[in-house]
Amino acid sequence: MTLNQFIVSNNIKPADSIVMKKKLFGMLNHYVIYLGISDYKHVFIANYTKGVKIIPDNELQEFLQILQPIKIDRFPGPDSHRPAAVKRALSRVGERAYSYVSNNCEHFKNWVHRGEHKSTQVDNAIVGVGAVALAGLISAIFSKD
């Protein structure tokens, strides 16, 4: 399926996010925001290691070699709010403050969608690490050498 077919068959609209996962052993999701069509081409934006940027065609093709779209995270507001969400996304183009923990692609997606700087993946990882640390502490307290 081509990218155009994927967009049309899933009725993707500006400000919707495409959730992608690495094709081989992907554990974390990657999020890209669809901006719409410009100059007869589909345009996407993302926050990734190169910063917040509109993804050039060559990089989009590289993404599609290693990432597979797995679902659509629809813009949660009414259609009349989509232009404001697209404008919010574009306002951060050029920002180079990517961080896996504090400013990743999911943080960006949630900020575009809801105005919230949040990542469920990071929150879940922190809870998991905390649970392992707590279990180790409890084990150390109750173990006797």
Notes on the structure:
This protein has 145 residues and is an alpha+beta fold. The chain has one domain (3-142). The protein has helices at residues 3-9, 57-66, 82-90, 105-114, 120-142, and strands spanning 17-22, 29-38, 41-48, 51-54, 67-73. Strands 4-3-2-1-5 form a 5-stranded antiparallel β-sheet. Helix 3 (82-90) crosses helix 4. The longest helix has 23 residues, at 120-142.
Give keywords.
globular, alpha+beta, five-stranded antiparallel beta sheet, single chain, 41% helix, 5 helices, 145 residues
Q: Numbering strands along the chain, what is their spatial order in the largest sheet? A: 4-3-2-1-5
The largest sheet is:
5 strands, antiparallel
**Mean pLDDT, as a whole number?**
82
Low-confidence parts lasting 5 or more residues at pLDDT below 50? 122-134
Strand segment tally: 5
Number of helices: 5
Q: Return the structural class.
A: alpha+beta
Portion in helices: 40-55%
Total domain modules: 1
Q: How much strand content do the residues show? A: 15-25%
SSE arrangement, N to C: HEEEEHEHHH
The backbone outline, from C-alpha atoms, is globular
**How would you classify the quaternary structure?**
single chain
